[in-house]
């Protein structure tokens, strides 16, 4: 449960907060913060917050996004390796141009993996740790159009491509921080509308870490598969831009790049209410990691040979639900064919406007 104040409350400052309760860990998560507008024309805001929440270990993270745990992405319901973070952050948001947004953030706090994990190197032995970081994030949407209004900045046209870039520096020994590393993350989204309303979606993303970093700041390539038995227990909800045949924690990298290709074919109008839609999907990723032995408690593989999967999505078969099938092949193909196959339920929310 949470929310933020709107312009009816104030056009010069905002208050935001949320609180959640985890039924699995039986613990509360919460955040509260405030921000003040410094300049209306450039949409410049200065803010700060305190957060006690969880995140997926080795997940790709951007400060420009709300990265708190959300059940809206069905994949989050299957993730089992989280870390708790209690951080104090201050940030400055500023529009360099209407379509080029920047955010600078300083953050410090405690991190605790909620699973069996230790970072063990020649100089460190840590089951939990502190981080003090400085980040700069850029969001560039060159073809999108915006307008300043009495209620703030409005998006008039949300166009593609869209570019996200983030640089994070962790400072050792500042406010008792335990690590010194530099991380660069990026994401590119593109959408091509073809003839007869077919649409091709392209997502390229990746990151690299310079220096030794803990599991919270590595990369798992967004897997969404479990090797449970009997096999029917592997049928779960499909995620959003995740590798549906890659096992959770199967791969961990300190540098990786992935590409997700989706081609949505126009819906088949069988009846006025039954309009199934077919999507062709291919995903690939490659990565590597130095000093993998420092990450103790997780057994994982190296991604340097390249991972690939392809599949079909049959969407909107019944009240927004559909079915999808994916197959894993290439260098990381499993010996047993059934371990390469993934069947998933899909869901597309139709708001009707």
Name the shape in a single word: globular
Low-confidence stretches: none
**Which CATH top level class fits?**
Mainly Beta
Q: Structural class of the secondary structure composition?
A: mainly beta
**Side-by-side strand order of the widest sheet:** 1-2-3-4-5-6-9-12-13-14-18-19-21-22-23-16
Q: Kindly state the number of beta strands.
A: 23
Measured distance between first and last alpha carbons: 25 Å
Structure write-up:
This protein has strands spanning 2-4, 13-22, 27-39, 44-56, 82-97, 100-113, 118-120, 125-126, 129-140, 145-149, 152-157, 162-170, 181-193, 199-210, 223-225, 236-237, 243-247, 255-264, 277-288, 295-296, 307-318, 321-329, 341-347. It has 353 residues and is mainly β. It has a single domain, classed as Porin, CATH 2.40.160. Strands 1-2-3-4-5-6-9-12-13-14-18-19-21-22-23-16 form a 16-stranded mixed sheet, with no helix packed on it. The chain has a three-stranded antiparallel sheet with strand order 8-7-20, with no helix packed on it. It has a two-stranded antiparallel sheet with strand order 10-11. A hairpin with a 2-residue loop joins strand 21 and strand 22 (321-329). It is globular, with a radius of gyration of 21 Å.
